[in-house]
Amino acid sequence: MAQKIPATVITGFLGAGKTTLIRNLLQQANGKRIALVINEFGDIGVDGDLLKGCGIENCTEDDVIELSNGCICCTVADDFIPTIETLLGRADPPDHIVIETSGLALPQPLVRAFNWPEIRTRTTIDGVVTVVDGPALAEGRFAHDEARVTAQREADESIDHETPLSELFEDQLACADIVVMSKSDTMEAGQADDTVNALEARTRDGVRLVRSGIDGLAPAVLLGLDAGAENDVAARHEIHHHHHDHDDEDDHHHDDEHQHGHDEFDSFAMTFGELTDVEAFRAKVEATIRKHDVLRVKGFLAIEGKPMRMVLQAVGPRIETYFDRPFGSDSRQSALVVIGLHGLDEAAIRGELLT
């Protein structure tokens, strides 16, 4: 029997650093053929474009597949399984498959999908990697205004015991084989130690916790875990929903139930022309995030007089910008995706960013 092709699932909350982790992983792959399946939440394939444009020799455009028709755990039959079948059926199949889930995706349904007969005999989950933003977590920012929700819960026992975002975070921790605390190099030593200790108390026995900085992690840390996660679904219990072994009826039930869960979030895409003042635009983004409680802004900016496009990544109040590659034949347009809780005032946000 042919050896199963290993797959690594990389999950984590919005802006935790999944794309950066993958990019560093590719740069250190040493010839290993890695195919990427990216589940983008929003209308612009920002993460896929970042990786396609990375200029890494063993990362060609054919090796990056984007699933942008909805949350990956809601489109298993229609999108995910056929995509994996296509990769496995190549004349030169990849050595390893890396799947980056949307920040809003539940990892457990994806793990269960590897038991589908179409792919079960040909691939296995080598490991589930959950990435958490170390500084944000230390500040209690892994959930939307968690401190206020916690205070309300303590004051009134009738308050719902969990917010949707904190449930999602717990599900991602519960499914992990490795938890990566990103941006740890920006934290004070004591703060980083305390955050790791808090994470250890929330994970299953045997789950590894590692710290990652700007240089990422070596492939040996993330690949070759041989976890066979699809055979161990019961131990990776989920808080957000409860499921049974899949059949047609259960799959349709899950799709309806989970899509309702995604009504908790809104996202929209916006495109606009070149910018002349980057710092002024950064200030607009920061002010808009604070005013409208936006969770995530990411995309590309075209800067007047600059041949390279600028990547913008914003998580809460933190905004990162850097030039990644020339525009080339691409249109010199700026493009952003804005993600937040249900009820985002799209018209107001557009107006504030574009005036």
Task: Give a structural overview.
The structure is a single chain. The protein folds into two domains: 5-262, P-loop containing nucleotide triphosphate hydrolases (Rossmann fold), CATH 3.40.50; 265-354, 2-Layer Sandwich (Hypothetical Protein Yjia, Chain: A,domain 2), CATH 3.30.1220. It has helices at residues 18-27, 46-52, 76-88, 107-113, 117-120, 134-138, 146-155, 164-175, 189-200, 219-222, 248-262, 278-292, 346-354; strands at residues 5-12, 34-39, 64-67, 96-100, 123-133, 178-182, 208-211, 265-272, 294-301, 308-315, 318-326, 334-341. The protein has 355 residues and is α/β, with parallel strands linked by helices. Mean pLDDT is 76; it is low at 69-77, 143-163 and 241-263. The N and C termini lie far apart (62 Å). The relative contact order is 0.15. It has a seven-stranded parallel sheet, with helices on both faces.
Task: Give the number of helices.
Answer: 13
The CA-CA distance between the termini, in Å, is: 62 Å
How does CATH name the architecture of the largest domain?
Answer: 3-Layer(aba) Sandwich
| Uncertain regions spanning at least 5 consecutive residues | 69-77, 143-163, 241-263
Strand content: 15-25%
CATH superfamily of the largest domain: P-loop containing nucleotide triphosphate hydrolases
By CATH, the topology of the largest domain is Rossmann fold
**Main β-sheet description:** 7 strands, parallel
Give the number of domains.
2
Shape annotation: globular
Rg, rounded, reads 20 Å
CATH C-level class of the largest domain is Alpha Beta
Order of helices and strands: EHEHEHEHHEHHHEHEHHEHEEEEH
Mean pLDDT figure: 76
- What's the total number of strands? 12
Strand order of the largest sheet: 3-2-4-1-5-6-7
**Helix share of residues?**
25-40%
Q: Which structural class is indicated by helix and strand composition?
A: alpha/beta
